[in-house]
Amino acid sequence: MDIHHIKQISEIMRWNSFTKAAEALHVTQPTISKAIKNLENELNTEVFIREGNQFKLTEAGETIMKYAAPILQLFDQLSAELDDLAYLNKGTIRIGMPPMAGPSFFPGVIKAFQERYPGISVSLVEDGARMVKEYLEGGSLDVGVILLPVESRIIDSFPIVEDRLKVIVPAAHPLAKQPQISLRELSEERFILFSSGFALHDRIINECRNAGFEPRIVYESSQWDFIGEMVGADLGIAMLPDTICRALDSTKVLAVPLIDPVIPWQLAIAWKRDCYLSRAAQAWIAFTREIFKAT
């Protein structure tokens, strides 16, 4: 038995006629009669008792009709919901986003996306780029924003933002007067870093080690604005992307270009390779690729 059999029996009882039921289902009368006969053979019992031109339901037929209405209603709801998903009238996307990336680049993008796809809801998870990558690999996120380069064989991505780190120092700091700063000049400074869940945490430490010193880390935080405030309070120095530096209070801190080495800050849209991606997630990937390519 399948959904077509239930529809056929329901229409026969609705019209009290095989012929009219066939017309309503846009099939021929012999087709519907043959389908009911095949069903009876499958069930090894009759569904209708025929008495001349009249017919009535058997006990098996009455049992089918008992469940026919709710089954057909649920099937219609399922079909409608699948159509909505197929045509992007509904759906949910789980997006991971580092705190620095979200406010700086994505409010307008999310607004434009939801104007195009008003039925799709966006669920945001804020965490460091390293954790976002782990969530993607574990399947708890559909897409995410990560920091390049990414060391993973199961993550696909495309770049969206290219920036570089600057050194954030208190406004009265001696280094604030310099046009640029070499990393080696920071060997005696106190460092304020992002927490260990952020990709920049290890990257800055590794760059310092490559420059010949171990950074003296005095504070860690997950909030870039709080890091800026701590630098402004002369608790240490920090490194933030140029884009973020522009949002800091220039009366308290100054951002000086970092050289030797230049440390890039490159963001990418990422997703797990070779796994199921919903139509909504595919739409987000295509939309952000279009938006950031244009900008």
Rough outline: rod-shaped
What is the CATH first-level class name of the largest domain?
Alpha Beta
Mean pLDDT: 90
The largest sheet, given as strand count, sense and whether it forms a barrel, is: 8 strands, mixed
Find the structural class using helix and strand composition: alpha/beta
Enter the CATH topology name of the largest domain.
D-Maltodextrin-Binding Protein, domain 2
Our Rg estimate from Cα atoms comes to 32 Å
Percent helix: 40-55%
Number of helices: 11
| Strand residues, percent | 25-35%
- How many DSSP-defined strands? 12
Summarize this structure as a short list of keywords or feature phrases:
alpha/beta; 295 residues; 11 helices; 12 strands; 26% strand; two-stranded antiparallel ribbon; D-Maltodextrin-Binding Protein, domain 2; Arc Repressor Mutant, subunit A
List the helices and strands and how they pair.
Elements: H1 3-15, H2 18-24, H3 29-43, E1 48-51, E2 54-57, H4 59-86, E3 91-97, H5 101-105, H6 107-116, E4 120-126, H7 129-138, E5 143-148, E6 155-170, E7 181-182, E8 190-194, H8 199-210, E9 216-221, H9 224-232, E10 238-241, H10 242-245, E11 253-259, E12 264-272, H11 279-294
Parallel strand pairs: 3-4, 3-5, 7-11, 8-9
Antiparallel strand pairs: 1-2, 5-12, 6-10, 6-11, 6-12
Helix pairs in contact: 1-2, 1-4, 2-3
InterPro entries: HTH-type_LysR_regulators (IPR050950), LysR_HTH_N (IPR000847), LysR_subst-bd (IPR005119), WH-like_DNA-bd_sf (IPR036388), WH_DNA-bd_sf (IPR036390)
Family: Belongs to the LysR transcriptional regulatory family.
Keywords: DNA-binding, Transcription, Transcription regulation
